[in-house]
Amino acid sequence: MAEIAIATQDLVKTFKVRNGTLTAVDHVSLEIARGETFGLIGPDGAGKTTLTRVILGLLSRNGGRSSILGLDSMHDSYAIRERVGYIAQQFALPADMTVKENMDFFANIQGVSKEDQKKRVPQLLEFAGLSEFTGRLAGQLSGGMKKKLALATSLVHEPEVVLLDEPTLGVDPVSRREFWNLLGHLRAEKGLTICVCTPYMDEAERCNQVGLMYAGKLIASDTPRAIKARIPGRLLEFRPHQFVPAQKLVSTMAGILEVQTYGAMLHVFVDDLALRKGEIEAALTAQGIGFEPLREIEVRMEEAFISLINRELSQAEAPETSGAPAGGTG
Fold this sequence. Notes:
The chain is of the alpha/beta class. It folds into 2 domains: 4-228, P-loop containing nucleotide triphosphate hydrolases (Rossmann fold), CATH 3.40.50.300; 232-298, 2-Layer Sandwich (Alpha-Beta Plaits). The chain has 11 helices and 14 strands. The chain has helices at 48-56, 77-83, 99-109, 114-127, 143-154, 173-190, 201-204, 224-229, 243-251, 273-286, 301-315, and strands at 4-17, 20-33, 37-41, 63-68, 71-72, 84-87, 161-165, 193-198, 209-214, 217-222, 234-238, 256-262, 265-270, 295-296. The longest helix is centred in the middle third of the chain and has 18 residues, at 173-190. The protein starts with a strand and ends in a 15-residue tail after the last helix.
């Protein structure tokens, strides 16, 4: 059995708000194995950031348990920080320091000896592709380069676990890909345990395991392939010329398991691909609704996440009247 790097059991975090209590983390239980890349996926307000901060011991918990490397989040927070690297969502590099000065600054904060700094800092700058920019001010770096420098500073004390809170938010697609390539190399070469919070569903495909959060709850935790396999039926995609009438029509037809919108496209889950494809085409034609050809596509994490949220909402009991409704922050 794999050794566990991060664990929570029935973890709860609440905040007092004007109208009562907000449950940001709602009885979350998860395990992240050593050497694994775990993606905590969900929209803004799902509770990802709050969960991460409680695990790190930066916020107190209201119930349950949480630990990193066997160290309790509430009682061993200083020991945790010596063995963990962390990039906060609003992480800010000193803009008036150069790349090299930033590395030295964070190395000193982490208590890295001067002798170790001489070896590690050049290695990390080379790893992050920043060796040619050591004299450039951090404030003059591109968004992608700032993220890489932030990653390098979080690794300077050679942590065993790295937690990254939306590290690619606002970064261009090329820089996002480069950043994830760096994470892949870290896991392969260093055996690091990596936990990444992200609102980008496509980034989940790069993780060994994925946890889907919504309204403070962990609604699924498994491999990307296993999560997508939970969604029943086959998936058809097409572009109708009259979007709303087509959506309403298809939603009422037999054998339609679920209808999702994706830009100008309709994504339709059906129980029988060959049968329902013909029936949808015939029904649209009969109503005078034009459409581009229907085609089957593979279920992605985004469709799976939406489907699981819809299932969660349909199965949920009516909210209690005391306090504010359950929700999330971060």
